Amino acid sequence: GAVVSQHPSRVICKSGTSVKIECRSLDFQATTMFWYRQFPKQSLMLMATSNEGSKATYEQGVEKDKFLINHASLTLSTLTVTSAHPEDSSFYICRMEPRGRNTEAFFGQGTRLTVV
Amino acid sequence: GEDVEQSLFLSVREGDSSVINCTYTDSSSTYLYWYKQEPGAGLQLLTYIFSNMDMKQDQRLTVLLNKKDKHLSLRIADTQTGDSAIYFCAYHGSGNTGKLIFGQGTTLQVKP
């Protein structure tokens, strides 16, 4: 089946530094990519959506200058948390949607970010 | 608006059936989904149901959809300890866009 590889799985960084999280689809082309954030014992909160050939669309309340999304290719998307603060500590998950198959949504394994 | 409600916790004994319930507000989504999340991991699509169906069975999983009441349920037969996880229902928001709206998740605890 389709696989999405997300890494790193865990990262600890110092306040003020930037962290890049990468999601890669291994055997399909993803025309749409989604980034979610999940707080402990809570649901997934959509942060942004990026479609092929266009800039990411951010959800209300999500700072686009802080959470930089680069839809580099049809198989790669990155989320960079810039100038990280402890309140950015969370579980970040990407989701990639194959071309023409929007009933299927493949999630990465998630990245646990801890900002100290 | 778009909202999904789930009960937060369910505890069952191994071998029993588990039923996880979900109610939603927006009925325009063509598909509704159930995802499983194991500790520290991403989400795994378990099953989905087309909105004009009222039941779908897939091995130990049975999905029931009551579109009139906007109620979705997931029944797991012969629940095993490996089924312990958080289960999320989800649907496409805002008229079938790719954006998925998730419930809060139901933590299923299976006792031996």
Helical coverage of chain B, percent range: under 10%
Quaternary state, please?
Answer: heterodimer
Count the beta strands of chain B.
11
Radius of gyration of chain B: 13 Å
Uncertain runs of chain A are none
Shape of chain B: globular
Order of SSEs of chain B, N→C? EEEEEEEEEHEE
Task: Calculate the mean pLDDT score of chain A and round it.
Answer: 89
Number of helices of chain B: 1
| Helix/sheet category of chain A | mainly beta
Mean pLDDT of chain B: 88
Name the helicity range of chain A.
under 10%
What structural class results from the helix and strand content of chain B?
Answer: mainly beta
Rg of Cα set of chain A: 13 Å
Query: Ends of chain B: how far apart?
Result: 40 Å
> Which regions of chain B have little confidence, pLDDT < 50, spanning 5+ residues?
none
The SSE order of chain A reads: EEEEEEEEEEE
- How much strand of chain B? over 45%
**Largest sheet data of chain B:** 6 strands, mixed
Care to give the gist of this entry?
Chain A is an all-beta fold and 116 residues long. Chain A has strands at residues 4-7, 10-13, 19-25, 30-38, 44-51, 57-58, 67-73, 76-81, 90-98, 106-107, 111-115.
Give the SSE map.
The complex is a heterodimer of chains A (116) and B (112).
Chain A: E1 4-7, E2 10-13, E3 19-25, E4 30-38, E5 44-51, E6 57-58, E7 67-73, E8 76-81, E9 90-98, E10 106-107, E11 111-115
Parallel strand pairs in A: 2-11
Antiparallel strand pairs in A: 1-3, 3-8, 4-5, 4-9, 5-6, 7-8, 9-10, 9-11
Chain B: E1 4-6, E2 9-13, E3 18-24, E4 31-37, E5 43-50, E6 55-58, E7 61-66, E8 71-76, E9 85-92, H1 93-96, E10 100-102, E11 106-111
Parallel strand pairs in B: 2-11
Antiparallel strand pairs in B: 1-3, 3-8, 4-5, 4-9, 6-7, 7-8, 9-10, 9-11
